[in-house]
Write a structure and sequence with these properties.
single chain; 666 residues; mainly beta; 18-stranded antiparallel sheet; 34 strands
Length: 666
């Protein structure tokens, strides 16, 4: 059991994006001072107090990144306790049979406070929701967003309770008479996850101080997982091995008709090297084993969507209200009016169910020269049915335009090869080299809602436009493929603005001219790890590469047109970039912004020296230095080619870390 008190200080995540888009030629602080508490914010548009004649507030352009850090205070205090109790009993009447009980908990209570300073850019840009007389009908009170620079305060109280119970019986027995052994397990697992709390936002400065436009928001989310499982391992003569498993898992995320999933698996192995007919080869061949397996696994994790199958109504906020003449003193300090929140239905999918993946695997393990050269080769095929993902739904078919749903089937085929070697072994020098390479190809084989060859499910939202996507799921192509217009280029290789290939030949550029253009997933991945030891010196280096992965450069698409950077004519993203006048919706969906992001990265380099027998062999001392992420080789012109999801819209750089250390063993 252990307890923890955690004090967190957060920052506004948009500050990093703002630092890329904000005009770098401007000073951090306005020399004369302004309404934004001495911070320069919007450029090219007059921004002033609402009382100033002709004033206007630009809510689109980039905020000053320094102000986003200094005038936003976000912190949390967390009290946490984690405990575990495990009991194991060997049955007195049968010592080979054990009963094991494991109980665990993770409890936490936290308070989050976010404060936007008065007259900060955020307070002017976001404003505060106030209940004021409707300008068109003063007799009616209406929620209005007032951008008057008054600060805001957000508070959230949250309690988390995660509980675990595992119980299983395990039986192990060696049968010497027949040169075999048995290991059997059967058990039950129960997990409970609960998040509950409340939150509210209020004005914390000026004449509206303490105003809370909406009632406190209360929430509670529960998730339960239940499993029954069994496993049998059987070995005969130490050379024939078999494993059979069976799981039945239940989740509260799905309806009673789809709540349970059954997941079996079987694996077989044969240690050929131990057979008598292999005796002549053992001077060279030190290990040889073949194995095969088949199994089904399940997936139900869809993030914070806890009841996607259930028709749920939500109390409306943010203007989803109707006028009411009854006063609500607990919400409106002066009691002059009120509102009634409407109740709106959420989208739901009563047929959502487990995603299931069936895997066939065949492998060979080998070793030569007393395992001085050892490795394995794997060939696999995975078929996933009822693939779970967040996807758009046809208009009018539900109460929402996007939701978690089972979209179809996916197939993965791959090969993986590992080899571990010691190429050089002498008295003073040893070289160890490990290499891994894998190839994988995936394609969608079925989409539940469409048999049309051109049918696709849009995904992969980008920053330009509202609801604009750059990826698609389409039968016959990899999941999350880029779905774009084909750009037309001039004789110099520069894109011709607004000109795209009419791929279907109908004389016009429409959505029908989009095409599948590469995938976010690499075709080949490899890792090469080398260690060199010379006397007391050691040197190590790890190289890793992705080949064939493509990335959509969202930052470049959003910042390389005159229309998007008119207030920052010397934008720090424009160096060595083609500058457009105005991309428009089609322009940002051009294949011009989909870039080859293959890379070779050095993960770490380490060098050390060891004194093995100091103080009369009482002390072993090693001094070392290490560099993590020292370099990366790539043609990609964004900040980092290794982008999760294939859409480059996060600018936090990977650090290069240099460290020195001493390891002492007494």
């Amino acid at each position: 059991m252990r307890g923890a008190y955690i004090n967190n200080r957060f920052f506004d995540g948009s500050a990093l994006g703002a630092s890329v888009s904000f005009n770098p030629t401007l000073p951090v602080y306005a020399p004369e001072g302004n309404v934004f508490n001495n911070y320069t914010t919007y450029v090219g548009t007059r921004v002033a107090r609402p009382t100033d004649a002709g004033s206007s507030i630009n809510t689109i352009q980039t905020l000053n990144p320094v102000s986003l850090i200094n005038e936003y205070n976000s912190s949390s205090k967390v009290y946490q306790s984690i405990g575990n109790l495990q009991l194991d009993l060997a049955m007195p009447f049968l010592r080979e049979l054990h009963a094991n009980l494991n109980l665990g908990y993770d409890l936490s209570r936290s308070n989050v406070n976010n404060i936007w300073a008065a007259n900060s850019p955020m307070s002017w840009k976001n404003g505060s929701d106030l209940l004021l007389p409707d300008p068109d009908n003063p007799a009616v009170m209406k929620i209005q967003n007032v951008k008057d620079g008054e600060g805001r305060y957000f508070h959230e109280h949250q309690v988390k309770a995660n509980l675990l119970l595992d119980f299983y019986l395990n039986y192990k027995k060696d049968f010497d008479a027949i040169s075999s052994n048995l290991d059997a397990t059967a058990g039950y697992s129960w997990q409970s996850f609960r998040w509950q709390g409340n939150s509210f936002t209020q004005v914390n400065t000026g004449e509206h101080k303490g105003f809370q436009a909406y009632p406190t928001n209360y929430y509670r989310n529960d998730l339960k997982l239940v499993s029954f499982f069994g496993r049998i391992n059987y070995t005969f003569m130490d050379r024939y091995l078999a494993t059979v498993t069976l799981r039945q898992d239940g989740t509260s995320r799905f309806s009673k008709n789809h709540r349970w999933g059954t997941f079996p698996s079987v694996s077989l192995a044969w240690r050929i090297i131990d057979e008598a007919f292999m005796e002549p080869t053992r001077s060279v061949l030190s290990d040889l084993k073949i194995r095969a397996s088949w199994g089904i696994t399940g997936q139900q994790d869809i993030g914070d969507d806890f009841f996607p199958y259930m028709p749920i109504y939500t109390i409306g906020n943010n203007g989803n209200s109707a006028p009411n003449t009854t006063a609500y003193p607990n919400i409106i300090p002066d009691g002059k009016g009120g509102f009634i929140n409407v109740i709106k239905p959420n989208g739901y999918n009563s047929d959502i169910k487990w995603e299931e993946t069936t895997t066939w695997n065949f492998g060979i393990d080998f070793g030569f020269l007393n395992n001085r050269i050892a490795g394995n080769l794997e060939v696999y095929k995975r078929k996933t049915k009822d693939l779970l993902t967040w996807a758009t739904v046809p208009a009018g078919s539900n109460l929402t335009n996007a939701m978690n749903t089972n979209i179809g089937d996916l197939e993965n085929t791959g090969i993986e090869f590992n080899i571990n070697t010691r190429p050089v072994v002498t008295r003073d020098f040893t070289w160890t080299s490990d290499f891994n390479i894998s190839w994988n190809k995936n394609k969608i084989t079925k989409l539940t809602d469409g048999d049309d060859p051109g049918y696709f499910i849009a995904t992969g939202g980008i920053s330009a436009g509202t609801g604009t996507n750059i990826q698609a799921h389409m039968v016959g192509h990899p999941a999350y493929s880029f779905y774009v217009y084909q750009q037309v280029y001039d004789v110099n290789g520069d894109p011709i603005e607004g000109q795209f290939v009419d791929r279907n030949g109908d004389g016009q550029i429409t959505e029908a001219d989009k095409y599948i253009y590469h995938s976010r997933d690499p075709k080949v991945v490899f890792t090469w790890n080398n260690t060199f030891n010379y006397k007391n010196w050691d040197f190590g280096m790890v190289l890793r590469a992705n080949i064939g992965n493509w990335v959509y450069n969202d930052f470049e698409a959003a910042n390389t047109s005159i229309s998007s950077t008119s207030s920052a004519p010397l934008s720090n993203l424009m160096s060595n970039r083609f500058l457009f006048n105005d991309l428009g919706v089609r322009g940002v969906q051009s294949d011009y912004f989909v870039r080859n992001a293959s890379f070779l990265r050095c993960d770490n380099i380490t060098i050390g020296y060891t004194w093995p027998n100091l103080l009369n062999d009482a002390l072993r001392l090693r001094l070392y230095g290490a560099v993590q992420n020292p370099f990366v080789i790539t043609k990609y012109n964004g900040l980092d080619p290794e982008v999760f999801g294939g859409i480059d819209n996060a600018v936090y750089p990977r650090p290069v870390t240099v460290s020195f250390g001493i390891v002492a063993q007494f």
